[in-house]
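Render this sequence as a predicted structure.
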Amino acid sequence: MDAHEIRRIRLSGQFITSPCGGGPEAVVERMGAVQAQEYRASKWAVGLRASNCTESDVENAFNSGKILRTHILRPTWHFVSAKDIRWITELTAPQIKRVISGYESMRGMDESTFSAAFRVLRDELSSGPQARDVLSKKLESAGISVKDGRMPMIMMRAELECMVCSGPRMGKQFSYSLTEQAAPSAESRGREDSIAELARRYFAARGPASVQDFAYWSHLPMKDAAAGAECLGGEFGRVRHGGREYMFHDGNADACQENATFLMPDYDEYLLSYRDRSSAVSHPCTEGKISVNAENDRKLLISDGIIAGKWEESKAGISLRIDCEADDAVLERIGKAKARYLGFILRPPRPRT
């Protein structure tokens, strides 16, 4: 299996060339989780993968609680299905807590700080979702400082305890809900079952990928990632590439390559799902302009699955910087990719002048 085959199968498994039916919530559930620290970009990450989806469809799924936003896998926000929030949080929270413990100590926060804060949060949220600034004021009035970065740490810890998660947007503000109210049917799983299920979701949606890629994405210890990969059933294929074993779902092996040109959202799963991103390496003419491993290299233009330039959005519209050689066929595909994004945000293209 070469890099071209890896790209082709990944694009299908990630629902980019084979969009997922069932709405935004189906995309998030089948992906396991979708990175979502940049809220507007993450809506496009979901819309890119869903059939006939607009930005308002994703917003509605979020506000109705079909998809939730919380800190799981790594210490950053992800979209997750309301069905899955509890078991994925319980599986990945211990590792995240270890990562952030130093930041908590630097701010003078200990378990007594969090216990006091959690009592305030539970009291305030018991009657329904509350905006973040309301919760911040309530904590301050209870004598719990939220200054100097303490508020994000309090809310992240509350999320990691599976006590709170996202609520509906209140105007332009984000809110929080008690997890037991936002996701009353969310269930726990045993640890081994959780590892196996997370591995199944990961390799089905992101394969071909290695155990090292899965460990990077999930933030699980390598031994747990390897155990999860060993639980994959007979519907998963295994191949060697670059000295490593790659696993993928056989159902994606015959994938087509339509819509492999797209405007990639910031922090998208197409790159951030993998430790080794060399299969998306750019054309030689982009060398020195874009680093495939630079997570802050945002607004990337993907042409036939390969990084080919950048894009920007402004009030004037979408501007493109194409760094690869582009004949008429490539330019036509890029034009369709631009129109696809504009259709998602329901913004008509500007007429040419």
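Summary. The two ends are 46 Å apart (CA to CA). The CA atoms of residues 239 and 246 lie 5 Å apart.
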